[in-house]
Amino acid sequence: MTDPGTLAHDGAPLFLVDELPAGGTVLVTGHEARHAVDVLRMTAGERVRVADGEGTLVEGVVAAAGPEGLQVEVLARHDVPAPEPELVLVQALPKGDRGPLAVELATELGVDRIVPWTAARCVTRWRDDRVDKGLAKWRAAARAASKQARRPRIPEVTGPMSTREVCGLLGETDLALVLHEQARRPFAGVDVPSEGVVAVVVGPEGGITDGEVVAFRAAGAEVVRLGDEVLRTSTAGPAALAALSARTRWS
User: Fold this and answer.
1) Residues 151-181: tens digit of each pLDDT
2) Fewer CB within 10 A of the terminal residue: the chain, N end or C end?
């Protein structure tokens, strides 16, 4: 494996596969290959990246492109470590397509784990027969956004959690922040650790209930105000993640 620090940011597109075999060539098939050949019109000699979504990444050049897939000659192979701190978004289920939108934006802005939260005031409810469909949409959005952002790691989208389960998760973090427009403490005044797990909780369109705030505080979370503006549930989380990334990861 080569040094992850030598990764070149040359604009090469990223393709995601379920598994990266060892060896000097990688064959990209299925939807990824069709996108490369039919949409991007990739030809031999072009630089590409291929990742397994779990941190293993190869850089290479296209050796052949056709109906059988995209054959990539491997030039370098990397194990890309997980970034620090781990960023977790606890996202209350929004209405309609705002759930996948929140996942898409959060992925582009560095989230590592997304937890769908069945808050008391959620308009949307994933009944038992709709959980798999809802998760499939969120996970597809995370995968597509990872390609767009050229991230070698796809964020995990967990199963939906109740408020009680979220409290258990928050109790295991190094910093947990609950966004609330009526909070007195500003988000900018919080000390953010450079390692460990940092979680952000975003409520639904109807807001977080007083009982939920009490429960989250009892679990060790801090209630903070992101800014003077009241953001939509689908944009509040990504905005907080961008602020966290600027303070801990971006340089």
Assistant:
1) 999 999 999 999 999 999 999 999 999 999 9
2) C
